[in-house]
Amino acid sequence: MNASLDADSAVLNETAAYRRNVGIALFNAQGRVLIGHRYRDDGPEIVLPGLDWQMPQGGIDADEEPQVAVKRELWEETGVNHAEFLGQTDWLSYDFPPYLGPHHRLGHFRGQRQKWFALRFTGSDAEIDPLATRNGQPPEFDAWRWERLDRVADLVVPFRRAVYLEVARSFSRFADRP
Fold first, then answer.
1. What Å distances lie between residue 123 and 30, 48, 72, 139, CA to CA?
2. Where does this chain carry the motif Nudix box (predicted)?
3. Is residue 129 situated within a structural domain?
4. CATH no. for residue 76?
5. Is residue 34 a contact partner of residue 56, using CB atoms and an 8 Å limit?
6. Is residue 143 situated within a structural domain?
7. What DSSP designation does 108 have?
8. Is residue 48 part of a domain?
9. How far is C-alpha 82 from the chain's CA centre?
10. What pLDDT score does 155 carry?
11. Residue 4 banded pLDDT, cuts 50, 70, 90
């Protein structure tokens, strides 16, 4: 469950498949990040009471570049179209907890290999709507809020925590806004 960089992820990928994924730290003008409240489990991506918040993230389609996927996923999960690129991390990964449920699209993956992007939100809060269905994708969040980046790792499920701590370290300069 440790965050790992490119070399470590390559070694892990030799033994099990990781799903390619992008994560999004969307910063507002005050340096807070957008987080969504997950209201249901999605296969191996479980939700635990009190640890049911996360930043938007999603899979990279076949032959899709991460820089394209990040904009698509941000729109699908939040409705946001107005954001500017600030930076990105190296590849990070996390493992799913054991999953014994019914067949699920994520069930054959060991976890996710993610590239995280920092974006500055340039729209208005009225643009944010996580409850709409976009591109045929059902909503993942039933609520949203702006949160301090250094607090988000305490709000996510434990198997994502190491990645969130690395994202907070990598993107802290974008949160330090007056």
1. 13, 31, 16, 21
2. 58-79
3. yes
4. 3.90.79.10
5. yes
6. yes
7. T
8. yes
9. 18
10. 97
11. very low
Give 178: exposed, middle or buried? Use CB within 10 Å, 0-12, 13-18, 19+. exposed
More confident residue, 56 or 108: 56
Q: What is the DSSP secondary-structure string of 43-104?
A: TTB--BTTB-EE--EEEPPTT--HHHHHHHHHHHHH----EEEEEEEEEEEEEPPP--SS--
What pLDDT, on a 0 to 100 scale, did the predictor assign at position 104?
63
CA gap 107, 119 in Å, rounded: 30
Structure confidence by residue, pLDDT tens digits, 125-176? 999 999 999 999 889 999 999 999 999 999 999 999 999 999 999 999 999 7
Q: Work out the number of other CB atoms within 10 angstroms of the CB of residue 114.
A: 28
Query: What total of structural domains would you count in the chain?
Result: 1
pLDDT at 15: 55
What was the pLDDT predicted at 49?
Answer: 87
Separation of alpha carbons 36 and 78, rounded Å: 9
pLDDT class of 102 with cuts at 50, 70, 90: low
DSSP string, 138-169: PPSEEEEEEE-HHHHGGGS-GGGHHHHHHHHH
Structural domain including 36 reads 6-175
Q: Using CA atoms, how far apart are residues 58 and 129, in angstroms rounded to an integer?
A: 17
1 within some domain: no
Identify the three-state secondary structure at position 25. strand
